[in-house]
């Protein structure tokens, strides 16, 4: 777990998007949470405040955000939000946001009137190349290839 967090932190330093500060902050808090972890009984479903945090991240995934901003929205400490999100959803908040951005881009690629560059900007990517790299990593093909098979295929 700590190795994954450290690897994720290292990857953030090479990322070219506006989420680097948010990602580094959450990774550090995740590491802190691991050091202070106490085994407690697990409820059946996430608490309401955590569902609210997930909805917030989904709603604002295309914009620049910060962990303190999210923490204020759900009225919880940033360390607690970060730790509980990973525990309940099995991924960091930054992984969740990036997945949402890619999924939004995939939906928008079905609209042939929108350029890939426009879609990348609308979904919070640094540029078209950044979207293409993330999209290929997630799905195994480029946005242009996806569009060709879905819209023109």
Overview of the molecule:
The chain has 153 residues and is mainly α. It has helices at 2-14, 20-35, 48-59, 67-74, 78-89, 93-108, 116-122, 128-139, 143-150. The model has no long low-confidence stretch (mean pLDDT 86). It is built from 9 helices and no strands. Helix 2 packs across helix 5 and helix 6 crosses helix 8. It folds into 2 domains: 2-93, no CATH class; 98-150, Homeodomain-like (Arc Repressor Mutant, subunit A).
Summarize the entry for a quick read.
This protein has 153 residues and is mainly α.
What number is the mean pLDDT?
A: 86
Helix-and-strand structural type? mainly alpha
Our count of helices gives: 9
Estimate the global geometry from the Cα principal axes: globular
Number of domains: 2
Distance between the termini: 42 Å
| Element pattern in H and E | HHHHHHHHH
- Extended strand count: 0
* Alpha carbon gyration radius: 17 Å
Q: How much strand?
A: under 5%
Oligomer: single chain
Architecture blueprint of SSEs:
Elements (H helix, E strand, L loop, with lengths): L1 H13 L5 H16 L12 H12 L7 H8 L3 H12 L3 H16 L7 H7 L5 H12 L3 H8 L3
Helix pairs in contact: 1-2, 2-5, 3-4, 6-8
């Amino acid at each position: 777990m700590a190795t994954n967090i450290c690897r994720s932190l290292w990857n953030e330093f090479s990322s070219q998007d506006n989420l680097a500060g948010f990602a580094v902050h959450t990774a550090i808090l995740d590491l802190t949470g691991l050091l202070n972890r106490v085994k407690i009984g697990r409820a059946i479903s996430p608490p309401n405040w955590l569902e609210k945090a997930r909805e917030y991240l989904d709603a604002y995934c295309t914009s620049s955000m910060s962990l303190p901003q999210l923490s204020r929205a759900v009225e919880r400490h940033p360390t607690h939000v970060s730790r509980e999100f990973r525990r309940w959803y099995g991924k960091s908040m930054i992984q969740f946001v990036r997945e949402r951005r890619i999924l939004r881009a995939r939906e928008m690629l079905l609209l042939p009137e929108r350029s890939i560059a426009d879609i990348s900007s609308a979904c919070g990517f640094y540029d078209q190349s950044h979207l293409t790299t993330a999209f290929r990593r997630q799905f195994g093909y480029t946005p242009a290839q996806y569009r060709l098979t879905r819209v023109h295929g």
